[in-house]
Write a structure and sequence with these properties.
412 residues, alpha+beta, Phosphorylase Kinase, domain 1, Phosphatidylinositol 3-kinase Catalytic Subunit, Chain A, Domain 5, 3 domains, five-stranded mixed sheet, four-stranded antiparallel sheet
């Protein structure tokens, strides 16, 4: 019989970064009538731990988020994403589903190095089971289909879909073990185009543009594909503390934008890596603009804590054309707010530690690579109809003209 949950108003946050030494971080509690979660650090963590985010300094007070429907500071990144919440609502027969319950039910596979337990004496995650392997892919896809169709899922099948494995988004997903490593696998929702394959092709193209991306693979599922992305918040058996740009910028009171994140890197990255980290972020922003990836919101960027306490950008992930031609990014770009133009991207290059000439050289390089996107996508197996549809946006008048100006006249 599945474990029965009895609602309670406090749970316990654990640090799982070192597999040989799990540590109690503190106590989580209900706040805002169940629409928020508070944190109070444990005395031992105050003595030898670290601040989980800048708005959670190492002091003995109770941290309560100002906003509703979230958890305090970096604890918010331990929550399941929208897909995970959907899975939990379907799988967990709980008499209550507040933010606190969602944190618990996210389980042991959640993103980053934090864990949630009902006990302060020992870390006991909600429902642990072996990770499925690649030979379970087709069955996993069938479970995803049942969740999307709101059909019944057996207890045995529930183990195939993990609700807490990523930072943000509503795309159907779970975890698979491939070659002994954990990979996040994302499935199609029946879109007009083969989105998983397009995401894999886009990530590979980004890599040719000098953008550091998470390793990805396309996997055949039925008549379409899934995309597998290797987890970058794991290093062997160790777990890496991850903070989304959403949490990191909110903690400092900054607006949610690329220039603001670039300036944050000046403070949190190792001194010798600041320049390369800021350039990486600039490359990522330019690539997203040129490929019509306008869903580049702040939860699609993350910082990974290093052993010395500094932070580095995670590899890029969730990079895929939106196929909407909105003309605005999800994050601020420059003087013209979130407008998807290269001129706007150039307006605040100093925030990225770049001089204008160096920034233009980067843009020209990315433009030259993106110009060949059709050939690249075809080589990755993208269907002609999908390429034709995407061309309406990637090669539409606005983006093509900007690209060509840099390639032919080096103007913006």
């Amino acid at each position: 019989m599945p474990e029965k949950y009895v609602p309670q108003d406090r749970l316990f946050l654990w640090w799982l970064g070192d597999p040989a030494r799990q540590r109690l971080v503190g106590e989580l509690g209900q706040a805002a009538g169940g629409r928020a979660v508070s944190l109070r650090y444990a005395p031992e963590w105050l003595q030898s731990g670290f601040a989980l985010s800048e708005d959670l300094p190492l002091v003995g007070e109770l941290f309560v988020p100002r906003e509703k429907d979230c958890a305090a500071g970096a604890v918010d990144d331990a929550r399941p994403d929208r897909w995970g919440e959907r899975v939990i609502r379907k799988f967990e027969a709980s008499p209550r589903l507040s933010i606190l319950e969602f944190l618990l039910f996210a389980g042991d596979d959640r993103y980053g190095a934090l864990g949630v337990s009902q006990r302060a004496e020992a870390y006991e995650p909600w429902r642990r089971s072996p990770m499925p392997t690649l030979d379970s892919l087709e069955e996993m896809a069938e479970v995803v289909r049942k969740v999307l169709a709101n059909e019944a899922v057996s207890e045995l099948q529930k183990r195939l879909v993990r609700p807490g494995a990523s930072l943000g988004g509503a795309r159907p997903k779970s975890l698979l073990e491939i070659d002994g490593e954990p990979w996040l696998v994302k499935f199609s929702e029946g879109e007009e185009i083969d989105t998983p394959l397009i995401e894999h092709a886009t990530m590979a193209l980004a890599s040719t543009c000098g953008v550091e991306v998470a390793a990805s693979r396309s996997l055949v599922v039925g008549s379409g594909h899934a995309v597998a992305v290797r987890r970058f918040d794991r290093a062997g058996q160790a777990r890496l503390h991850a903070v989304s740009a959403h949490v990191a910028l909110r903690a400092t009171g900054e607006e949610l934008g690329y220039p603001q994140l670039a300036q944050l890197l000046r403070r949190v990255a190792p001194a010798g890596a600041i320049r390369s980290q800021q350039e990486q972020l600039f490359r990522r922003m330019i690539f997203n603009i040129l490929m019509d990836n306008t869903d580049d919101h702040e939860k699609n960027h993350a910082l990974l804590r290093q052993a010395d306490g500094h932070y580095l950008l995670s590899p890029a992930f969730d990079v895929v054309p939106s196929a909407q031609g909105l003309g605005y990014q999800a994050m601020l770009v420059g003087d013209q707010a979130s407008e998807s133009t290269l001129a706007n991207a150039l307006s605040q290059v100093r925030q990225f530690g770049l001089k204008t000439d160096a920034a233009r050289a980067i843009i020209k390089d990315i433009c030259s690579k993106v110009a060949g996107w059709k050939k690249h996508f075809k080589a990755k197996g993208a269907a002609a109809k999908d390429i034709t549809l995407l061309a309406q946006y990637i090669d539409g008048d606005k983006l093509r003209q900007q690209r060509n100006e840099f390639l032919t006249g080096d103007r913006a």
